[in-house]
Amino acid sequence: MASPPDKPAKQPRGEVSGGPRAGIISAAPLIPEHPTLESLRSAAAACHACPLWEKATRTVFGEGEAGARLVLVGEQPGDEEDLSGRPFVGPAGRLLDRGLAEAGIDRRQVYVTNAVKHFKWTPKGKRRIHERPNAREVAACQPWLLAELAVVRPQVVVCLGATAAQTLFGKSFKVTERRGELVPFPHAPFALATVHPSSILRTRDDEQRHRERLQFFADLALAAPHLA
Questions:
Q1: What is the pLDDT of residues 21-77, one digit of tens each?
Q2: What is the DSSP letter of 108?
Q3: Whose CA is closest to 115, among 183, 20, 207?
Q4: What is the spatial distance between Cα 200 and Cα 103, in angstroms, rounded to a whole number?
Q5: Residue 208 needs a FRET pair 20 to 30 A away by CA distance; which of 11, 46, 215, 225 works?
Q6: Other C-beta atoms within 10 Å of 76: how many?
Q7: Which CATH number goes with the domain that contains 158?
Q8: Does a structural domain hold residue 115?
Q9: How many CB atoms lie within 10 A of CB 183?
């Protein structure tokens, strides 16, 4: 395996006023004035708005084209994503690809990204175990996600899991209560939330995992009629 590239030189941190919490460390000052996906990706590579960059291999930005009809938002990169620099390439990503195929959604119409762009982990022997990002880390990274949505301008946004849903729909949003429900959203005509595919893979009971997989595929299929 090729050695990962050196991390970019440290950039000054910025503070945003009037955000979710005034004065919180935020990526907002790093957003280009007239952003494109290319300029956002380049700027995000040097993002040090929260401490997660220190343990991550690299920033893992979104992937897809401006004008994609569907945006899928996960929580954060996993181990494989951190090493490859691409979102949703691990086991959860493969399940997601299968769900899109089952729903009849053309993968070329999809932009995939995460609420947090660096892998947060804790060591366990030789393994790196996923650790959920906290509220300050999510808030610091939110400007990247909002900028991506502003550039892509999708028809539908699907949040995968609680972190993504609460990042975009508010902290009171509960996926368990509103899963598959079309909700008002200022950044796309249609938006809904479902579980993250990694939660299905963690299900130990085979029968339950099969049911969860079918329900997840059905949730993704709800987006299909709105992509025309």
A1: 334 589 999 999 999 999 999 999 999 999 999 999 999 999 999 999 999 999 999
A2: G
A3: 20
A4: 17
A5: 225
A6: 28
A7: 3.40.470.10
A8: yes
A9: 16
